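RECORD TYPE: inverse folding
INPUT: structure tokens
STRUCTURE:
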């Protein structure tokens, strides 16, 4: 079957054998259960299979590619022909999964945010090995006091440890994307800050970072009736900017907001 890449589904297929081998060697997956998001024509799937995992599930939205994968791999993989944004990943297996995804760029942050927000007390995965456009990866891993630091870094930092593995050039793909990519490895945090509702973290970071150049005074007054009292309690200088507060401080502020509303 001839494959024509669909731009609307972010189809850039990875063809660089060194990069493919590198991706499947980041963690030991022999005898592990694997979930691959957007396997496309199965290039990465092939490399995963060579490591002898216990089982491979793949989620692919494209009907034609799902048929092609069925032809190519038959019962060696379990194909879920659906939209990853509509799937409950925690229902796929009762084993913890290692997840691989050369994610479609247009929905990559939506997928990651959905997973982080939906994690209850139990993680359904052991590792996430995910590829993003480099500019998005830089925002995910940014530290505070950096201009790229913001909502994505804070949300990720809440429940996950993250490490950059490699940057990948456009010539490793076909068709070639216009931008560089980066591969990130995420692992669950053993203890993460308990909040009542993840949406409050989303809301508060949205208010703060939609005015990232403004002093903290402004978003503080929007979120808290007693802004000065809260700032004093946490020893925060309201003349600083949102990027100067570390992730932990945002978690504390969200908890304070939740406690004050009880
Ligand atoms: N992993 C393959 C590779 O490296 O060669 C292809 C990666 S390509 C960047 C993204 C893949 O995700 C495509 O196969 C595309 O059809 C699929 N995809 C796009 N949107 C999706 C969605 N919402 N749910 C599941 N798969 C999706």
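DESIGNED SEQUENCE:
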């Amino acid at each position: 079957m001839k494959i024509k890449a669909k731009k609307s589904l972010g189809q850039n297929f990875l063809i660089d054998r060194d990069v493919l081998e590198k991706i499947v060697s980041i963690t030991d997956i022999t005898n592990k259960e694997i979930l691959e998001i957007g396997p496309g024509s199965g290039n990465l799937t092939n490399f995963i299979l060579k490591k002898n995992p216990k089982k491979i599930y793949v989620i692919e939205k494209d009907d034609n590619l799902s048929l092609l994968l069925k032809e190519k791999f038959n019962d060696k993989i379990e194909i879920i022909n659906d939209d990853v944004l509509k799937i409950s990943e925690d229902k796929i297996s009762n084993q913890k999964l290692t997840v691989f995804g050369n994610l479609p760029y247009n929905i990559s942050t939506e997928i990651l945010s959905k997973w982080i927000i939906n994690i209850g007390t139990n993680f359904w995965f052991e590792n996430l090995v995910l590829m993003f456009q480099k500019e998005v990866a830089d925002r995910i891993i940014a530290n505070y006091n950096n201009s790229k630091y913001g909502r994505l870094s804070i949300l990720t930092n809440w429940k996950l440890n993250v490490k950059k593995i490699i940057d990948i050039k456009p010539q490793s793909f076909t068709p070639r994307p216009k931008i560089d990519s980066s591969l990130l490895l995420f692992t669950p945090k053993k203890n993460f800050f308990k909040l009542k509702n993840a949406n409050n973290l989303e809301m508060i970071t949205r208010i703060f970072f939609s005015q990232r150049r403004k002093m903290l005074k402004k978003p503080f007054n929007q979120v808290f009736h007693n802004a000065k009292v809260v700032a004093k309690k946490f020893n925060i200088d309201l003349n600083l900017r949102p990027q100067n507060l570390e992730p932990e401080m945002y978690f504390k502020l969200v908890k304070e907001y939740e406690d004050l509303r009880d």
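NOTES: The radius of gyration is 20 Å.
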